[in-house]
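Title: Prediction job returns without error message
Component: structure pipeline
Severity: low
Priority: P3
Assignee: unassigned

Description:
Job completed but the reporter wants confirmation the result is attached to the right record. Sequence as submitted:
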Amino acid sequence: MKLLENTSFEAINSQLTIETGDSRIIGRIESYSCKMAGDDKQMFKQFCQDGQPHVLEALSPPQTTGVSPNRLSKSQSGDEGEGPLCDKCSRKTLFYLIATLNASFRPDYDFSTAKSHEFSKEPSLNWVVNAVNTSLVSAVGEEFKTLKPQLWDAVDEEISLSECDIYSYNPDLDCDPYGEEGSLWSFNYFFHNKRLKRIVFFTCRSVSGYLYSQCTEISNNFDMDLDNEESLDQDPDEEDEDEAEALEETRYQTVCV
């Protein structure tokens, strides 16, 4: 999956990191081409060893049903009608969703083993738009209300929303990239336009403001410790060489003057 440049998304993303006092909102919108090349082709061949691209995979019901995505259907093992799974998608589409996650969260996470039941097909564009707007307006209020028209216009221009199938990623806690302590809520939506061979990925989370500041402080202290260790580990001979080079450069500048 190739990340496509989009200056409108870059401008919006800069406004999707918001401090609210009690929490910190971190969101981003990215556009990816579904045209496979290089590693994607190899990964797709491996992915298809478990089933042909046209084979349909069962998905979990969307969050609107109130059914937890963790309640797996026995239909995965061939027993139809015994669980809550409803919609399906082709293995090729499932591959695109997984590859998008890998591209977006690389190198921190690997979603290559993600299963179809961790994804849902959303019932309508209106519901997704309302769900996103409700989450962000509740979190940041008027600040998002001014951004909202610009955001959805940019997404529509990039992906033609009326032509899209919309999917969401709702993993178990162990597989959730936002499953760390202090995460308040999150969403991951994929807007897939088959005609354009493109996916727009919209991901956002809310993190406890206190825990986020604590983690940031720990991370900064860790980076400082690493810098100090590198300084202490420097070879004395290298230090002498650096000093000699600096002295030689000073002499050269003096001669030139």
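Comment from assignee: result matches the submitted record. The chain is about 45% helix and 20% strand.
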